[in-house]
Specification:
Length: 734
C-alpha cells in the first residue's frame, strides 16, 4: 500500500541509515490500531443488533408487552405486601416469568448482527476481487520477484507467501488484497525501474500488512460497513410497506415521526463516523507497516523512496478521507523509528467513543438474554466490562506503555489524552444508535453512567500511565520480552475491566439514591458492594505488580536525580499513615449501641481506608503527578497494614478469625479502589515535582503529612455518625 512514482529513483536522503532496534516480541494481537479496528467492527455489528431489535418490536412487540404485563400482575398477586424482601421476591418472579420473551428479544436482536457479519464475511471474497479487476489485467511477476517475496516473508514469520503480480500500466499504488487463503501483492509496473533495495522496501511494506493481519481486518471492516447500510434500512422499509397495505398510510406519514427521523440521523452519523474512523485507523496501520518492515533492515531505501514523493497541502476533509498518510508524515514516522507510534488525541477519542458504545450495548443485550438465569445482573455487566476492557487495555493501555519515554518518570502525564478519553465516552453514550427514542434516565441508569463512566475510564487510564512509568524506571525502556507484554496486557485488562465494572455499579446506585445522596452511592459501590471481593483482589493484583516494579527498579536507594520520597521514604509513609489511623481509631470511640460489633467493624474498615487515602494524598503533595505510581502500591499496603493491626486487636474474641481477616482486608481495599479511580485523573493533572539532591530533606515530610492526613480522616469518619455505615434493614447487629 505504497505510492510509487513511475519515474526513476529519487535522490537518497542524507539522514541516518541504521534502523533502530524494534522488539522481536511486538505481537500483532497487541496492536493499538488493530484494537481500534476490532472496536469499530463490534460497534457496526451491534448497530445491526439494534435494527433486529426494532424488527422484533414491530413484529413481536405486542406479544412481548402482553407477556410482561401479565407477569407483573401475577407477581403482585403471588407476592403481596410491601418491603425490601417482597420487592426482591416480586422482581425475581418477573425475571423468571419473562425469561422466554426476553430471550426471544435478545435472539431476534442478535439476528441483525449475524446478518451483518455474514454479509461482511462474504464481502471478503467480493470487494478485493472488485478492486483487483479495476487494477487489472493482472500478470504474474517473474520467479525472481516471487523468490524475493518469499525471503522477506520468511524473515517476518509469514507461513503462506502471497503471490506477486503486476497491475495495469495505469496503476500507481501498490496494494495487497485477495480472498482468505489467497493473498496477492499487486505492484505497479514502475517498480521494475527502481533500485533493488527500494523495490524490496515496497515488498516488505506490503508483507508487513500481511504479517499484521491487516488484509483481513481492513476488508472485514469495509465489508461490515457496506453490509450495515442495507440492514439499517430493513426496519424502515418493513414498517412502511406494512402500514401501506394494512392501514393505507403513505411512507411519509409513517416515517415522518420523530423516532424515525432520529433513527435516520443517528444511522447516517454512525456510518459517516465509521467511515472516517476506518480511514484514520488504516493510516495508522500504514505507519506501523513502515516501521515493521524495517526490522533488521536499513531505513535508507524507504526514506529515499518517500523523500521523492510529493506531499501536497490537503484540506482537513481530504486528509480525513485519505487512505494513506502523506509522504511527509510517513517519512517523519520512519525517522522517529520506533514502535509504537505516539498516541494521538484522535486515537484516544476514537477508543473512548467506540468503547462506550460497546460497553452499553453489550450490557443491554446480555441483560435481556440472561433474564431469569443466574447470569443476569452483575454477571451480564461483567461480561460487557470484560469485552470492552480487553480492547481498551490494548487500544489505550498498551499504546501508552509503548510510548512512555524512558525518562525515569520525570516527564509529564498524557494529560490531553486523558481528557480526550474522558470527553469521548459520554459522547459515545449519547450519540449511539441504540439511544434512539430514549429521552431520559432509563432503568439501566443511562444518565448516571454518563457521569461515572468517563471518570472511571480516565482514572484507569491515569493509573495505567503511572504503572507504565514504573515499568520504564525498572529497565529504562518499554518491555521487550513476550512475557513482559503478557504481564502488561494482563494488568491493563484488570485496570480497565475493574474501572468499567465500578462505573456500571456506581451508576446503578446513583440512579437509586439520587444526586443528593451521592456519598451513599460511593459507599454502596465500594466496601458494601456485592463485587467488593473481586474489586479488592483486582486492586491487590495491581498493587503487587506495582510493588514488584518498584523493587525491581532499585527504588529502595536514592539515585541522583530520582524523584523525592522514593525508597525508604515511601516505607515510612506507609507505616506513618497506618499507625496514625490505628491510633486515631483507638483514641476516640464513637457512641454505639451496646454490642454493636457490626458498626465497630465498619468503622475499623473505614479507618483502614483513610490510611490508604492519606498515603496517596501525602505522596501527591510532595511529588505531584509522579507520586501516583508509588501510591499504587503504597496506599493498598497502608490500608492492609492498618486493617491487620485492628483485626489483631480483637483476635481473641473472633468466632471466625479467617472470615474476619478477609473482611478487614477486602472492605478497605474495595473502597480504596473506588477512591483511587475517582482521584487518579485529578492527580494526573497535577504538575510533576522533582527535588534536587540538596532538597531531599523535604521528602522527610511525607510521613508527617501522611500521619496528619490519616488522623484527621479517621476522626472525621468517627464524627460522621452512621452516615457511612450500612446495616441491612432486616438484620440485627451480632
Amino acid at each position: 500500500m505504497t505510492d510509487v512514482a513511475a519515474s526513476g529513483p529519487p535522490a537518497p536522503s542524507p539522514s541516518p541509515t541504521d534502523s533502530p532496534p524494534i522488539s522481536r516480541h511486538w505481537p500483532g494481537v497487541t496492536s493499538p490500531a488493530g484494537a481500534r479496528y476490532l472496536l469499530l467492527v463490534a460497534v457496526l455489528l451491534l448497530a445491526g443488533a439494534f435494527a433486529g431489535q426494532i424488527m422484533h418490536n414491530q413484529l413481536l412487540g405486542t406479544s412481548w408487552a402482553s407477556a410482561t404485563l401479565r407477569c407483573i400482575d401475577e407477581a403482585v398477586r403471588v407476592v403481596p405486601g410491601q418491603g425490601l424482601g417482597q420487592d426482591f421476591a416480586r422482581n425475581t418472579y418477573v425475571q423468571d416469568c419473562t425469561r422466554a420473551v426476553q430471550q426471544r428479544l435478545a435472539l431476534v436482536s442478535l439476528s441483525g448482527s449475524f446478518v451483518v457479519l455474514f454479509l461482511g464475511v462474504a464481502s471478503l471474497w467480493v470487494l478485493p476481487r472488485r478492486l483487483m479487476r479495476r487494477a487489472g489485467p493482472l500478470v504474474k511477476a517473474p520467479a525472481e520477484w516471487q523468490h524475493r517475496a518469499a525471503l522477506a516473508a520468511s524473515e517476518m514469520g509469514i507461513r503462506r507467501v502471497p503471490d506477486v503480480v503486476w497491475g495495469s500500466v495505469w496503476l500507481e499504488e501498490a496494494f495487497t488484497a485477495g480472498r482468505p487463503g489467497r493473498t496477492r501483492i499487486v505492484l505497479p509496473r514502475g517498480v521494475r525501474r527502481l533500485p533493488p533495495a527500494q523495490a524490496d522496501a515496497i515488498l516488505r511494506h506490503e508483507l508487513a500488512h500481511v504479517a499484521a493481519g491487516d488484509v483481513t481486518l481492513v476488508w472485514l471492516t469495509r465489508g461490515v460497513w457496506w453490509a450495515l447500510a442495507p440492514v439499517l434500512l430493513v426496519p424502515a422499509v418493513t414498517i412502511a410497506v406494512r402500514d401501506r397495505y394494512q392501514d393505507n398510510r403513505g411512507p411519509f406519514a409513517v416515517l415522518g415521526t420523530s423516532f424515525w427521523g432520529e433513527y435516520g440521523l443517528r444511522a447516517l452519523l454512525l456510518l459517516t463516523v465509521a467511515a472516517l474512523v476506518s480511514q484514520h485507523v488504516l493510516r495508522s496501520r500504514e505507519h506501523e507497516a513502515d516501521l515493521r518492515s524495517l526490522q533488521g533492515r536499513t531505513r535508507e531505501p524507504l526514506e529515499s523512496l518517500l523523500t521523492g514523493q510529493p506531499s501536497p497541502a490537503l484540506l482537513w476533509m481530504d486528509r480525513a478521507r485519505a487512505t494513506h498518510p502523506t509522504a511527509a508524515r510517513r517519512l517523519a514516522a520512519v525517522r522517529q523509528a520506533h514502535l509504537p507510534l505516539p498516541v494521538s488525541l484522535l486515537d484516544v477519542t476514537v477508543t473512548g467513543l467506540l468503547s462506550a458504545i460497546v460497553l452499553n450495548t453489550v450490557a443491554d443485550l446480555a441483560q435481556a438474554g440472561f433474564t431469569g438465569t443466574s447470569l443476569t445482573g452483575r454477571p451480564a455487566q461483567l461480561l460487557s466490562a470484560v469485552a470492552t476492557g480487553s480492547l481498551m487495555s490494548v487500544g489505550w493501555g498498551i499504546a501508552v506503555w509503548r510510548g512512555t519515554p524512558a525518562d525515569r518518570g520525570a516527564g509529564p502525564f498524557p494529560r490531553g489524552a486523558l481528557l480526550a478519553l474522558a470527553a469521548s465516552t459520554p459522547v459515545g453514550l449519547v450519540a449511539q444508535l441504540q439511544s434512539t427514542g430514549l429521552s431520559g434516565v432509563g432503568p439501566s441508569g443511562r444518565w448516571p453512567l454518563i457521569v461515572t463512566l468517563p471518570w472511571a475510564v480516565a482514572g484507569a487510564g491515569a493509573l495505567s500511565s503511572a504503572l507504565a512509568r514504573l515499568w520504564v524506571c525498572r529497565g529504562g525502556a518499554a518491555p521487550g520480552s513476550r512475557w513482559g507484554w503478557v504481564a502488561a496486557l494482563g494488568v491493563n485488562l484488570v485496570l480497565f475491566t475493574g474501572a468499567l465494572r465500578i462505573a456500571q455499579e456506581s451508576a446503578v446506585f446513583l440512579h437509586v439514591t439520587g444526586w443528593r445522596k451521592a456519598v451513599d452511592a460511593l459507599a454502596l459501590s465500594g466496601m458494601y458492594s456485592a463485587s467488593a471481593d473481586s474489586t479488592a483482589w483486582g486492586l491487590a493484583a495491581v498493587a503487587l505488580f506495582a510493588l514488584c516494579l518498584a523493587l525491581w527498579a532499585g527504588r529502595a536507594l536514592l539515585l541522583p536525580g530520582a524523584p523525592a520520597a522514593s525508597g525508604r521514604y515511601v516505607v515510612w509513609t506507609v507505616a506513618a499513615a497506618a499507625g496514625a489511623a490505628v491510633a486515631a481509631r483507638w483514641a476516640y470511640e464513637p457512641v454505639l449501641s451496646q454490642g454493636d460489633s457490626m458498626s465497630a467493624t465498619q468503622f475499623d474498615c473505614w479507618a483502614a481506608t483513610c490510611a490508604g487515602l492519606a498515603t496517596l494524598a501525602a505522596l501527591l503533595a510532595l511529588k505531584g503527578a509522579s507520586g501516583l505510581g508509588d501510591a499504587l502500591y503504597a496506599a493498598p499496603l497502608s490500608a492492609t497494614l492498618a486493617g491487620a493491626v485492628m483485626w489483631a486487636r480483637h483476635l481473641p474474641s473472633w468466632e471466625h478469625p479467617l472470615q474476619a481477616a478477609a473482611l478487614y482486608t477486602t472492605n478497605p481495599l474495595s473502597q480504596l479502589a473506588l477512591l483511587l479511580l475517582a482521584l487518579a485523573l485529578p492527580a494526573a493533572l497535577l504538575p510533576t515535582l522533582t527535588l534536587g539532591p540538596g532538597r531531599r530533606w523535604v521528602a522527610g515530610l511525607s510521613p508527617v503529612l501522611a500521619a496528619v492526613f490519616a488522623a484527621v480522616g479517621v476522626l472525621a469518619v468517627l464524627h460522621s455518625g452512621d452516615s457511612l455505615l450500612f446495616v441491612p434493614p432486616t438484620s440485627t447487629a451480632p
